[in-house]
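Q: I'm building a small set of examples for a reading group on sequence design. Run inverse folding on the following structure and report the sequence directly after it, with nothing in between.
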């Protein structure tokens, strides 16, 4: 069962190309426990699904931080 799960694991160095983030940043987030990943032979590995999940979470966080006027109009309201 563990071997089957490990077959989906990909080094973060390869997965980083699917994201706007560097390998170093993804490794940091893995160490912080924010990105689901495992270290195998001193190399961080994750799955495409876990990377997609992390990107979705980060997108939601960013949306929550963005004021409504910026989403709707792209510029601040004038008074």
């Amino acid at each position: 069962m563990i071997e089957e799960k490990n077959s989906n694991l990909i080094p973060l160095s390869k997965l980083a190309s699917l994201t706007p983030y560097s390998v170093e940043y993804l490794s940091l987030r893995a160490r912080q426990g924010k990105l689901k990943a495992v270290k195998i032979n001193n190399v961080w590995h994750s799955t495409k699904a876990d990377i997609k999940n992390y990107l979705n979470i980060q997108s939601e966080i960013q949306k929550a931080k963005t004021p409504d006027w910026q989403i709707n109009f792209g510029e601040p309201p004038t008074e």
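The mean pLDDT is 85.
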